[in-house]
């Protein structure tokens, strides 16, 4: 099984999420992940609240980490649905992704978004497709 450090290093290749947006991976386990985004002015929309695209990117990476870090085959997203409940009021936004069901070719995940002051910011559902491509090159030796 890959270590958290190996997972973090691998997903640095998701340059939009890691470099442009600044998402970090805090924890990962089979079918689960926790990712965070330290909110900065660059993440805000014209109204001064975190932009939906930044929140979506955080959730998309959380799904990718949860679905792929411990899997034998590569999973890609087919469909995302996100509902925004309230603007983040804190400084750190956390996305927790959890597998609801994983079958032979499809899977379903939920992602919950909260900030560091307890605001439930959003919820996302993701339907994924489990490809035939092997993840063996993700973490060599595991």
Key traits:
142 residues, alpha+beta, 6-stranded antiparallel beta sheet, 3 helices, 6 strands, 23% helix, 43% strand
Strand content: 35-45%
**Going across the major beta sheet, what is the strand order?**
1-2-4-5-6-3
Reading the helices and strands in chain order gives HHEEHEEEE
- The residue-averaged pLDDT reads 96
Q: How does the major sheet shape up?
A: 6 strands, antiparallel
Number of strands: 6
Distance N to C terminus: 6 Å
From the alpha carbons, calculate the radius of gyration and give it in angstroms: 15 Å
List unreliable stretches of 5+ residues.
Answer: none
Please, how many helices? Answer: 3
Q: Structural class, from helix and strand content?
A: alpha+beta
Percent range of helical residues: 10-25%
**Global morphology:** globular
In short:
It is built from three helices and six strands, in the order ααββαββββ. The protein is α+β, with helices and mostly antiparallel strands and 142 residues long.
How is the topology of this model organized?
Elements: H1 4-11, H2 15-21, E1 24-29, E2 32-38, H3 52-68, E3 73-84, E4 92-102, E5 106-115, E6 120-134
Antiparallel strand pairs: 1-2, 2-4, 3-6, 4-5, 5-6
Tell me what you see in this structure:
With 142 residues, the chain is an alpha+beta fold. The protein contains three helices and six strands. The chain has helices spanning 4-11, 15-21, 52-68, and strands at 24-29, 32-38, 73-84, 92-102, 106-115, 120-134. The protein has a six-stranded antiparallel β-sheet. A hairpin with a 4-residue loop joins strand 5 and strand 6 (120-134). The longest helix is centred in the middle third of the chain and has 17 residues, at 52-68. The N and C termini lie close together (6 Å).
